[in-house]
Design brief:
Layout: H1 10-15, H2 22-30, H3 40-64, H4 69-87, E1 112-118, E2 124-127, E3 130-134, E4 147-153, E5 158-162, E6 165-167, E7 169-171, H5 194-205
Antiparallel strand pairs: 1-4, 2-3, 3-7, 4-5, 5-6
């Protein structure tokens, strides 16, 4: 999760807003406004509630003799109604505040992790150790270079979306390794073992050494003065 003190990225500056966190994105898609507790009093109320549950539940579990998760969950069915009846505060307005679920709502498309990916030249989307082959759909055979959205759902399954539409996919085969030409020596006379073979290859592939430039001696003919002959006849 990014800190709000970090400088805004170029995309955030162009959009005029900070990119929401994954939880913030989910709340936006649900049409829910998150009101953070910015005062010590608001934070203290929730902390007192957690403190009450932590200390009281330990005593309740010990009295009931619960030793596993199943027995603890059965205890909550009796403890929570008693706790709420004792500390409940009547609402100012009667009725339910929950909104009805809209038609066509798919919880798997909201309660998930979403990642942006680009389709490769083989029409495959890479995600971690997975390779998802996109199948032809809506008269389109290929999605090469298209920007898609990969949804990682709560059950671990993956789905690929393009412009809000879920694309049919299947697991692609593993990527074939890249084969490269290797340097081989067919026949080497006198090479009876691997050491001689390695020495031969090293001598043939070694770069020639560049020696110092030739400098003639002081009495070299090149250093003598040249005599110019002229024809006066």
């Amino acid at each position: 999760m990014r800190s709000r003190r970090e400088p805004e990225s170029l995309e955030e500056q162009l959009a005029g807003r900070r990119k929401p966190t994954r939880f913030g994105r989910m709340l936006e898609e649900l049409g829910t406004i998150s009101i953070t507790s910015l005062s010590p009093q608001a934070k203290g109320r929730i902390e007192r509630s957690w403190g009450t549950f932590q200390y009281r539940l330990k005593s309740e579990l010990r009295i009931a003799g619960a030793t596993n998760a199943r027995e603890a969950n059965l205890l909550l069915l009796d403890f929570l109604p008693r706790f709420n009846k004792r500390f409940v505060v009547p609402a100012r307005e009667p009725g339910l505040a929950y909104r009805p679920v809209p038609d066509g709502f798919n919880p798997d498309e909201v309660f998930c992790f979403k990642y942006e990916r680009s389709v490769g030249n083989d029409n495959v989307v890479r995600f971690g150790g997975h390779r998802l082959q996109i199948m032809p759909t809506n008269g389109r055979l290929s999605y090469v270079k298209a920007n898609v959205e990969v949804h990682e759902r709560m059950d671990g399954s993956l789905a690929v979306y393009y412009k809000g539409q879920c694309l049919p996919t299947r697991s692609a085969p593993p990527e074939a390794p890249v084969l490269r030409v290797r340097n081989t020596v067919r026949s080497i006379p006198g090479a009876s073992d691997s050491r001689e073979l390695a020495l031969y290859v090293a001598t043939k592939t070694a770069k020639p050494r560049i020696g110092r430039p030739y400098k003639p001696a002081p009495d070299h003919p090149w250093r003598r003065h040249f005599r110019v002959h002229t024809d006066r006849g």
